[in-house]
Amino acid sequence: MLAKKTVKNQITLPKKIADQFPGIDYFEVRKQGDSIVLEPVLPERSREVREKLESLGLDESYITAAVKWAREKGS
């Protein structure tokens, strides 16, 4: 299967793959060698993600600012 990166650095998962992860909205992304690895963030792991963001001192205002910045850069 092939996925294309858009000018805004977005990739749509092929339906055949996405269908294998029902109820999953978030994926942890990391580089492994020359590959990009996506790992589903299970609903019960969302607490871990929130705790990690909090430990880094990142609250919703930082997330909002980062999204705004990324959208402006992608235009």
Task: List the defining traits of the structure above.
75 residues, globular, 16% strand, single chain, two-stranded antiparallel ribbon, alpha+beta
**Biggest sheet details:** 2 strands, antiparallel
Our count of domains comes out at 1
SSE pattern:
HEEHH
Shape: globular
Reading side by side through the largest sheet, how are the strands ordered?
A: 1-2
Distance from first to last alpha carbon: 28 Å
Number of distinct helices:
3
- Identify low-pLDDT runs: none
**What structural class do helix, strand and pairing data support?**
alpha+beta
> Over all CA atoms, what is the radius of gyration?
15 Å
Percentage of residues in strands = 15-25%
What does the oligomeric state look like here? single chain
Describe the structure.
It contains three helices and two strands. With 75 residues, the protein is of the alpha+beta class. It has one domain. A two-stranded antiparallel ribbon has the order 1-2. Strand 1 and strand 2 (35-40) form a beta hairpin.
List the helices and strands and how they pair.
Layout (H helix, E strand, L loop, with lengths): L14 H4 L8 E6 L2 E6 L5 H10 L4 H15 L1
Summarize the structure.
39% of the residues lie in helices and 16% in strands. The chain has helices at 15-18, 46-55, 60-74; strands at residues 27-32, 35-40.
